[in-house]
Amino acid sequence: MVGISQALEWTLSGRVFDAQEALRAGLVRSVHPPEELLPAAMELAREIAENTSAISVTLNRQLMWRMLGADHPIEANQVESRALRAVGAGPDALEGIGSFLAKRAPKYPGRVPADLPDFYPWWDERPFKPLP
Hints:
Layout: H1 4-13, H2 19-25, H3 34-51, H4 54-66, H5 73-88, H6 91-102
């Protein structure tokens, strides 16, 4: 997240750094006084919950974390393509488009884990195998 040179500096030096340095380096998205931290976290959580599909959030989160260690970039692309095909053909995509066009808040019908695509979880399928 912060780049290899910054990560190496912090880990090799063992230096303790403050929240402002973490913010400048991109390790954290924001810094808050203690009394504002929970309200800020709740506002971010509310924004995600009210504006995004739980199915999409779940798949995106797993794609981001699980594919960081992919043996080849095409491996992540193959899984992402499966996710796009599955979610793009589902009711959450229709609701997202419909709510946008109607200028209303979305009400995504998909529920985790019941409505996750049939290929989820995919990580037991690794390592990368090129397409024929």
